[in-house]
Amino acid sequence: MPTLIPPVNALDHATGAEHATIELVEYGDFQCPYCREAFFIVKELQQQLGDKLRFIFRNFPLSEAHEYAMDAALAAEAAALQQQFWPMHDALYNRQSDLDETLLVTLATELGLDLHKFSNDMDTPRLLSKVEADFESGVRSGVNGTPTFYVNGKRYDGDYQDLASFLVR
After folding, report:
1. Is position 70 within any domain?
2. CA angle, 22 as apex, 19 and 27 as ends, to 5°?
């Protein structure tokens, strides 16, 4: 069974109790319709499991299939520089059907981001390197599609719709 390479670290976007018994890592693409379905499942899991769950998101934009996947990943990373990764993450999935370059600016405005900083940050090599590092870690971990989940460092090979029953047993 493939393992997570590298393990969760300080560079990751994580939410939930730091010492949770369940560490759930998702490699996701903000334009992937299956990732959007999984988004709602993860939200339910966070409600159900509370402090038992720590959720980590890593970018895995499938740019050849999804025109705005890379831009959305960069927007989330730019929002992170203003401490707004999770609100941008959620907004991107909630408004996925409207995803384009205009929506990214709209969401940044709605989140109260400094738009000048947001635009400049989206174009920095540092953010592209972060997204590429996430993607490469996914490749090294055996990811070949989205969403792909890892539970406590081991790849979960079941259907993401069955993830809840797997985690609560």
Report:
1. yes
2. 110
Q: Do the Cβ atoms of 143 and 4 come closer than 8 Å?
A: no
What pLDDT shows up at residue 65? 94
Cα-based distances in Å from 47 to 3, 12, 152, 158: 26, 21, 19, 21
Q: For residues 32 and 70, is the Cβ–Cβ distance under 8 A?
A: no
For 51-66, what is each residue's pLDDT tens digit? 999 999 999 999 999 9
Please indicate, yes or no, if residue 56 is contained in any of the structural domains: yes
**Is 4 a member of any domain?**
no
Q: Check if the beta carbon of residue 79 is closer than 8 Å to that of residue 71.
A: no
Whether a cis peptide bond, with omega within 30° of 0, leads into 7 is no
Specify the pTM.
0.96
Average the pLDDT over 138-162 and give the result: 94
Decide: 150 and 156 in contact? Cβ < 8 Å. yes
Contact 100, 70 (CB under 8 A): no
Q: How far apart are CA 167 and CA 169, in angstroms?
A: 6
**Secondary structure of the chain: what % helix, strand, coil (to 5)?**
50, 15, 35
